[in-house]
Structure formats: C-alpha cells, structure tokens
Write a structure and sequence with these properties.
291 residues, alpha/beta, 8-stranded mixed β-sheet, 12 helices, 42% helix, globular
C-alpha cells in the first residue's frame, strides 16, 4: 500500500502531545517527545499499543528511544484509558477494528503494530483482520491464549487496587522491585503502579476479561502476512516463554528475541533493550512496506 500524500492527510499531527477524534470520541496520543512526521523517517510509523489498565505512559522511555533513532511513533491511550474518552471496548476484536480507524484519523496507511500484553493480542488480531494496514508486527510479553484466572477477574471487580498491586509485583523481577529505577530519583515500580492506578473504574476487569476471552489467536497468527517479532522477557511470570511455541509455529515470518533478567513489564525494566530489539526488526518491516 502506498503512503498517503502529506498534503492530503486527514488531521495531520504536528505536536508532541496529540489529540484526535476517533469513532466519535477523543483519543489522546503521544509521539515520543518529537512531532509526528513519518515522511522524515526511513521506517514505517510504529503504533505502540499498551496492555491492560495501562496507557500511553507505559511506553514513554521506549517511545523516546525510538524517536531518538529517527522513528515516527504514535502511542495512543486506548478507548476509555488514560485521557481517551468513551467506554473501554468489550473485546480484543473490537479493539483491533478500532486501530484502522485511528490510523485513518492520523493519516497513516501502514504501520508497524507493536503491542505489549493485552496490546499484543490487539496488534495480532488487527494484523490478521486488516493485513493492508500492517507492515510489521511486534508482540511483546505475549501469549495466546492468554488465560486469566476467574479469581483475578473477580478481584479486579471487587478490589481493583489489591489486584493492581499483585499484577505490578508479578510483572517485575524481584531485583527491579527492590532497586528499580533509571536514575534521577525515579523508582520504576512506583511508576508502573501509578499508571495502573489512574485507570477509570472498571477498566481493569474489562481488560482482563478481554484477554481471557480471546480464544482464536493461533488462527489469527496463521493469517498474518507481514514479518513478526516475538520479544520475550526471560523472567516473565505473566506470559512465560514456555507458552510461545504454538504461536511461534503459527506465524509465517517470525523472529524471536529474548531479554535476560527481565520481567513482564519490559518497557519499564529494560527499555533500552526493547528499543534495540525493535530497531533490529525494522529492516524486515521496511521490505514489507516496499513490496
């Protein structure tokens, strides 16, 4: 698919903090600290999709690293998350169908779909159902199926803060929980906890149910036509790497990369490693774009 002419793009995005109207609702986005201008990048734009009860700030360090390397990056708050208005959508399929509407509003033809955890399922389903919009697919902290215990979903409804605390603990390695930070007095585990705590009421339970209910990921993977990257944190307890072989076998063109000494929240623990692996994957997505 050819790129839209810059002069005809709908709602061109030129600021660092972005806002679009998507499907009748406000969508808040970030662009990695630089104005969004895909014409200045040799790579297709990267669309970074966050996980359950998260928002665009979960990608902040990764997005900044990618833009510093010359990438054009869009990082949305999914509907009903962060500063995006409207209800949280009730299924992975609904979220996947929302993505092309967002790309249309941003004037983007094809993008590299990058998803973490729940966002990886959204990216996978979108790449399968809307192949003309995906020049590449990067799945971080993924598993399909992605079962969630009934007790966890019930806890998210009855006592979401306790559930958020438990998920935050399981998403990080013990070492990072004790010493985590990237300098300047920032305590990494506190950042991830704060992001999850600001989700609107009920969003966590909806997101966890969406992950649990998405049952045809392997069938979707078999339909993906673009190159794919599986990025695995070696100490991920939420989506452990032992779950990956069926997904890896189902994808047609797949690379697998691992980050050692890292938990599920890899964008917080090892943002530089995530950036490095994504940049190594970009040449494959560029070949797809030019085909």
């Amino acid at each position: 698919m050819s790129w839209p002419d810059p002069a005809t793009r709908a709602n061109p995005l030129t600021t660092r903090q972005l806002e679009l109207t998507v499907a009748g609702y406000r969508c808040r986005l970030a662009s990695g600290g630089q104005p969004f201008n895909p014409d200045r990048s040799p790579w297709p734009p990267l669309l970074l999709l966050h996980g359950a009860a998260n928002d665009r700030d979960a990608w902040q360090q990764v997005a900044s690293g990618l833009t510093a390397a010359g990438c054009a990056v869009l990082v949305p708050d999914l509907p009903g998350h962060g500063l995006s208005s409207g209800p949280a959508l009730p299924s992975i399929e609904a979220l996947a169908d929302w993505v092309p509407t967002l790309l249309d509003a941003a004037g983007v033809g094809q993008a590299i779909l990058v998803g973490h955890s729940m966002g990886s399922l959204v990216a996978l389903e979108c790449a399968a159902g809307h192949p003309q919009r995906a020049s590449g697919l990067a799945l971080l902290g993924t598993s399909t199926p992605m079962p969630v215990a009934d007790a966890l979903i019930a806890g998210a409804k009855a006592n979401p803060d306790n559930t958020i605390r438990m998920m935050n603990e399981y998403s990080l390695t013990p070492k990072f929980r004790l010493t985590g930070g990237h300098g300047y007095g920032i305590w990494g585990p506190g950042v991830t906890l704060a992001i999850m705590r600001r989700s609107p009421p009920g969003v966590l339970a909806i997101d966890l149910a969406n992950c649990n209910n998405y049952q045809h990921g392997l069938e979707a993977a078999a339909q993906v036509a673009c190159p794919a990257l599986l990025l695995v944190a070696r100490r991920d307890r939420m989506t452990p790497r032992r779950n990956l072989p069926p997904l890896e076998a189902a994808l047609r063109q797949v690379l697998r990369a691992e980050i050692p000494e890292c938990g599920h929240a890899m964008m917080s623990e090892q943002p530089q490693a995530v950036v490095k692996r994504l940049l190594e994957f970009l040449p494959q997505a560029l070949r797809r774009r030019l085909a």
